[in-house]
Specification:
One of its GO terms (biological process) is nuclear-transcribed mRNA catabolic process, non-stop decay. Belongs to the eukaryotic release factor 1 family. Pelota subfamily. This protein is of the alpha+beta class. It contains 12 helices and 16 strands. The longest helix has 21 residues. The termini are far apart.
Length: about 375
């Protein structure tokens, strides 16, 4: 993102890359006002009375009603009613704006809370970019993934049927395997930008990863593929239980990987969630999840690390959303660390299974349900 202008009521932003659309999706709420350039089909009448139609570019200001985000294409469409006079569109008429890269838009809100302001700050930080790529594979299946601070994007899925080895003949198996490796290699060259990517994780069960890396660099030498040869040091081979996208979580938890990726936000989130699960097993009175439990811990000034999904801040009920914002503000005010997880990230998907909010506490607190049972037995 590039910030053009900001004041107390509105901010003007220019989305510079696909991930900025995800940030915008998290900034927008029903009832906001959005001003942007858009295409509108208008009817025209000639001097002879014949009616035609043409597409014109105009700038509209909408009161936002629905927000539609396509996570694979990173496209954002916003539907609402026109709230400012325009020569082509009547007041109150419906229109859908598709936000475009490198075209500015202005967002106005009735109230700007700390979560929204932090999101803008994070989105405009040039250091927060997609610097990790991964190839999660098994024989015949590979997922090529970009890991950004905000999301896990599957850029390509390669599937090739590999026949089994036959007794006395491996030719068909070996040919299919070579075809598979070639397709993965082409996917890497097409979808990974080595100017940005600092590390490429190649993960699989068994020896598939090692065989693929051997093939990749033999081919790079044979084809004189300079981009692969110059970036060889960025490739890191690690174990995964399968070639499916969900195996990326265990890959990012690998201690060797976390050491290599210590400067990335994605790795920090995975580690925080891993620490939470360890705490839940070892000291359950210091690991809370669910809004009511975590709020109680926050009131007792006990929250050390708060993990909360960005999905919760997209809640359309203002009172509910304010409750989550208040929790974040309270934890920060009391010296706690807040990590907002992306629901498009593998770690965020896992956090959403815990109601989207969890906390590691500074000191143990008796479980809320235990405390309630104790109080009810006292009444008896």
């Amino acid at each position: 993102f590039f910030i053009c202008r900001t004041d107390l009521e509105r901010v003007t932003l220019i989305p510079e890359e696909a991930e900025d659309m995800w940030h915008t999706y998290n900034l927008l709420q029903v009832g906001d006002s959005l001003r942007a350039s858009t295409i509108r089909k208008v009817q025209t009448e000639s001097s002879t009375g014949s009616v035609g139609s043409s597409r014109v570019r105009t700038t509209l200001t909408l009161c936002v009603e629905t927000i539609d985000f396509d996570s694979q294409a990173c496209q954002l469409r916003v539907k609402g009613t026109n709230i400012q006079e325009n020569q082509y569109v009547k007041m109150g008429a419906y229109h859908t704006i598709e936000l475009e890269l490198n075209r500015k838009f202005t967002l106005a809100k009735k109230a700007w809370d700390s979560v929204v302001l932090d999101r803008i700050e994070q989105a405009c930080d040039p250091a927060q970019k997609a610097d990790v790529a991964a190839v999660v594979m098994q024989e015949g299946l590979a997922n090529l993934v970009l890991v950004t601070p905000a999301m896990t994007l599957v850029r390509a899925k390669v599937e090739v049927t590999i026949p089994r080895k036959r007794k006395g003949s491996c030719a068909q198996h070996d040919k299919a395997l070579e075809r598979f490796y070639e397709a993965v290699m082409q996917g890497i060259l097409r979808h990974f930008s080595f100017d940005v990517v600092k590390c490429v994780l190649v993960a699989s069960p068994g020896f598939v990863k090692d065989q693929f890396i051997s093939y990749l660099f033999k081919e790079a030498v044979r084809q004189d593929c300079k981009i692969l040869l110059e970036n060889r040091s960025k490739f890191m081979v690690v174990h995964s239980s399968s070639g499916h996208k969900y195996s990326l979580k265990e890959v990012l938890c690998d201690p060797a990987v976390t050491a290599r990726l210590s400067d990335t936000k994605a790795s920090g989130e995975v580690k925080a969630l891993e620490d939470f699960y360890k705490m839940l097993q070892q000291e359950p009175d210091r690991a809370f999840y669910g809004l009511a439990h975590v709020e109680r811990a926050s009131e007792a000034l006990a929250v050390d690390i708060l993990m909360i999904s960005d999905k919760l801040f997209r809640h359309q009920d203002i009172a509910t959303r304010s409750r989550y914002v208040r929790l974040v503000d309270n934890v920060k005010e009391n010296g706690g660390n807040v990590r907002i997880f992306s629901s498009l990230h593998v770690s965020g998907e896992q956090l959403n299974q815990l109601s989207g909010v969890a906390a590691i506490l500074r000191f143990p607190i008796a479980d809320v349900s235990d405390a309630e049972e104790d109080s009810s037995s006292d009444e008896d």
